[in-house]
Amino acid sequence: LGKVIAIANQKGGVGKTTTAINLGTALAAADCRVLLVDMDPQGNASTGLGLAARARERSIYHVLVDQVPMADVIQPSQVPGLSVAPATPDLLGAELELVDKRDRALRLRQALAEVLDRFDVVLFDCPPSLGLLTLNALTAAESVIVPLQCEFFALEGLSHLVRNIERVKRSFNPGLQIGGVILTMHDRRNRLSDMVSEDVRSHFGDLVFSTIVPRNVRVSEAPSHGKPVLLYDWRCSGSQAYVKIAAELLRRRRKA
Amino acid sequence: LGKVIAIANQKGGVGKTTTAINLGTALAAADCRVLLVDMDPQGNASTGLGLAARARERSIYHVLVDQVPMADVIQPSQVPGLSVAPATPDLLGAELELVDKRDRALRLRQALAEVLDRFDVVLFDCPPSLGLLTLNALTAAESVIVPLQCEFFALEGLSHLVRNIERVKRSFNPGLQIGGVILTMHDRRNRLSDMVSEDVRSHFGDLVFSTIVPRNVRVSEAPSHGKPVLLYDWRCSGSQAYVKIAAELLRRRRKA
Ligand SMILES: Nc1ncnc2c1ncn2[C@@H]1O[C@H](COP(=O)(O)OP(=O)(O)OP(=O)(O)O)[C@@H](O)[C@H]1O
Ligand SMILES: Nc1ncnc2c1ncn2[C@@H]1O[C@H](COP(=O)(O)OP(=O)(O)OP(=O)(O)O)[C@@H](O)[C@H]1O
Ligand SMILES: [Mg+2]
Ligand SMILES: [Mg+2]
Q1: Residues 6+ positions from B170 with CB-CB distance below 8 Å
Q2: Chain B interface includes A9 (CB < 8 A)
Q3: What angle do CA B116, B80, B254 make, to 5 degrees?
Q4: Does the N terminus or the C terminus of chain A have fewer Cβ atoms within 10 A?
C-alpha cells in the first residue's frame, strides 16, 4: 500500500471525495500525519473540509503549472493532523497548458518529493476522468484505492480502470499497485447492492476491504456543514464504517 | 430548446446517462424520431440500451477522429424510434489524438449535419468532465439540459458549469442556451434534497423542470437488464417521472 495513495475511479459519483475526506480524517484521528491533495477542479474535497473558495489563493494548479513548491500551498484543515493542498477551478486548464511539456505526467511526483518526509499518509482525490490530472496522481502514487458504488454502471467501469492502471504501471510507475477496493453506498434494501458486492469479491478477492460503507444520509449532509462526517456525526453508520476502513488500511500496511 | 440537446454536468454520478436513456425512450414513445449519441468513453448509455460491447465496432470515436460519416455508426436500439451512436473506450484517446487539429471542437457538429433531418430530437450523453468531448457536444447543441442530483456537492459544481456554457457560447456556439435543469435522485426522507431543490429554484426559476425524478431502486436496476427503466418497469415512480419530463420538454419546445 505504501505512504502515497490515489483514490481513483473514472466513474462519476462513486464516493471518491467522501472516501478521501473521511479516510483522511480517520487516519489523522489514529495519529497519522495526513496530507490530502485535491486533484479535482471541482474542489469538493477542499469544500468538504471547510476551506472557503477565497482561502485557496495558492492551489495545486500553481504547483503543476507554475512549479510553485508544494510546501507553499499546503494548509492546515479543521481536523488536527490533516493538511490539505486545495484545488481551484483553474485546474481545469492545466491539461491544455501542460500539453507540450515533456514532464507533464511527473509534475505532482516531483513536487511531492520535497514534503514527503513530513507525512505518514498522502491521499489524492481524483476527478472522474482518466486525463492528465489522474495520470499525475497515478504516477506519484504507490497504490490506488478504488471506491466502488454498489451499482451496475460502476461495475462496468472497473475493467477500464484496471486496464489504465496497468498502462500507467508500464509507462510511468512500475511500483504502482491496486491497494484495495472499497464498496460504497451499499443499500441493504436493494438486492442489486449485494449482487454487485458479490461480483466484485469474486473478481478481486482479498483486495476488497471487508468493511462496506452503507448509504447513510448523514454522510451526504456533512459537506453542507463544511465538515467530514466523522466530525459532523461520529456515531452514525457512515462514520463508523470509515473508522473501520482506516483500521483495516493500517493493518494491511503493516502486513505488506 | 431546439432539436439538438446536450445532457451535461461535470459533476459525476448525477444522472446524466439515466436521463439521456429514459428521456430518449419517453420521447420515442411520444412518436419523436430520437438519436442518442454516447459521448462518454465509459459507454454507459450504449450498455443501458442493451448494445453489447462487440456490437459497437463503429463508434463515435471513428466519427470524431477518422471522420467516418455519422450515418455509418448509427444503429437501431430495442426501443422503437430510438437510434444510438455508441461509444467505446478508445474515445478516451480522442482528446489527445485531436489536440493539434484546428477544427477539433467542431467535429461532432460537422458530422451531425448530414443526418439531422432524419431526427426530431438528438440527445448527447456527456462524460463527467469539461474536456474536448463535452466541448464537442456543447458546440453541436442548441441547448443544454443539466441533471442535478439533490446533494450538496452537486450544487457547488453548477456555477462552474454555467461559466463554461457561457464560454462556449462566446467562442464556438452563440446560439447555445440552457434548456433546463432536471432535479434527480430526490429522496423524500432527506431534508437536504428539499434544501437543494429550493436553492436551485431560487437561482434558476422556471428553467427548473417542475417534475422531479425521485430516487427509485428500479431505475438503478434497469441497466443490469440492458433496458431503459421505461421498458423494465413502466409503472414505477422513476419511469412515470421521465414520461412527465418528456411531456414537459415537448411543451417547452412548442412555446419557444
Ligand atoms: N455512504 C454514503 N451515503 C450517502 N451518500 C453518500 C455516501 N458517500 C457519498 N455520498 C454522497 O454521494 C455523492 C457522491 O459522492 P462523492 O462526491 O464523494 O463521489 P465522487 O466519486 O467524489 O464524485 P465525482 O466523480 O464527481 O468526483 C455526494 O453527494 C456524497 O455526499
Ligand atoms: N432516480 C434514480 N434513482 C435511483 N438510482 C438512480 C437514479 N438515477 C440514476 N441512478 C443511479 O445512480 C447512478 C448514477 O447515475 P448515472 O450513471 O446516470 O449518472 P451520470 O451522471 O451519467 O454518471 P457519470 O458522471 O459517471 O457519467 C447509476 O448507478 C444509476 O443507475
Ligand atoms: Mg469527487
Ligand atoms: Mg454517465
Answers
A1: none
A2: no
A3: 55
A4: C
